[in-house]
Every structure is written in C-alpha cells, then in structure tokens.
Design brief:
Layout lengths: L19 E5 L7 H14 L1 H5 L9 H21 L2 E5 L2 E8 L3 E8 L3 E7 L2 H7 L1 E8 L3 E8 L1 H29 L1
Helix pairs in contact: 1-3
C-alpha cells in the first residue's frame, strides 16, 4: 500500500514551494456498507446453530460468517482509509482508492475554483457531523459526499481559495509591472 498523508508532512506528488494546508477524508459513516458486510454474514450464519442446537458442527458456521464479514469489512476500510483529500497552498487533490490496487487522482487548482458550498442532510447529518461539499469550477463540479464536519472544511477551503486567488493576483500584478 502507499503511505498515509498527515498534516504538515510531505506527500507523493508535492511540488516545490507548495505548502500542505490540511488533509481530510470522508466521515466513517461512509463505511456503512463495510459494517453491514461484517454483520449480515455473521447474523445469517448464526441462524442454523440456533435452530438445530444438537448438531455441534453447525457452531462453526458463525465463525465462518464472521471471517467472511471481516474480509468484507477490511475491503471497505481500505477504500475509506486510503481515499483522502489533500489541500495545499495551490490545489486540492482527491486521491480515491479503487479496490486494493487501483487509485484515481483528481486535482483542482484553488485559483480556478468559482464557488464552494456544503449541505448537511437533515437530522442524521447534524447528529453524526457529516455532509456534502460541492466545489464548482468552469470545467465541472467536485462533489464530496459524506465529508466529516463539512462546515469546518468549507471554511478552511474558502480561506485557502482566497489566499490562492490573492497570491495569483500578486503574481499577475508583478508580471504586468515588469512588462
């Protein structure tokens, strides 16, 4: 697997002079399929020993169901853990894990972002602290579903975009004055 990115550290693909601002990922609730995958095989495989209690070999069935559930859970955990959003002083980088070996990377320059918005989906979003963040650009939208603490990420992204736009404006002004 690849190394995990932490705030304040370098990451694969970081450019010279680029500062890592923060890293975030989706809320743990995005892994609900993994939790279902853990519980359902175990629950289903536990039914036969409860019905036919005199057959001792059937008591091995829940162990097999638990092992299958752990395998399913591990798969979903790897997908969740290695899918990260890296925000630097120049860009936002979405690294999405696809299976155990596949990775997709999408980058957006912060100065090209037109609008950022977020949505907390009702009661469950308020209670568990997750929501959807939409980052709009000229070429399309980057939608981050089930982001953890979307209002905090929204504020950090707004600050990063404003700093990037100010920085780009300073470079353009310096280039114009030189000419």
């Amino acid at each position: 697997m690849k190394k995990h990115v932490k705030e304040g550290k370098a990451f694969d693909g970081q450019r010279e002079g680029e500062e890592l601002l923060f890293v975030f990922r989706r809320h743990i609730i995005a892994m609900r399929k993994g939790f279902y995958g853990l519980l359902i095989p175990f629950a289903i495989s536990s039914i036969p020993p409860l019905i036919w209690q005199d057959t001792l070999e059937l008591f091995l069935l829940p162990i097999g169901g638990l092992l299958l559930g752990l395998l399913i859970f591990a798969y979903h955990y790897v997908l969740w853990y290695y899918t990260v959003y890296i925000v630097t002083s120049d860009r936002i980088r979405q690294v999405t894990q696809n299976g155990f070996f596949g990775t997709d990377v999408v980058e957006l320059r912060l100065a090209k972002i037109q609008n950022i918005s977020y949505n907390v989906p009702g009661f469950s979003g308020e209670v568990f602290g997750y929501g959807t963040i939409v980052i709009q650009t000229f070429v399309g939208d980057l939608v981050i579903h089930k982001a953890e603490h979307p209002e905090k990420i929204y504020n950090k992204l707004q600050d990063a975009v404003m700093n990037a736009i100010d920085k780009q404006g300073a470079y353009e002004k310096a280039d114009f004055e030189e000419a």
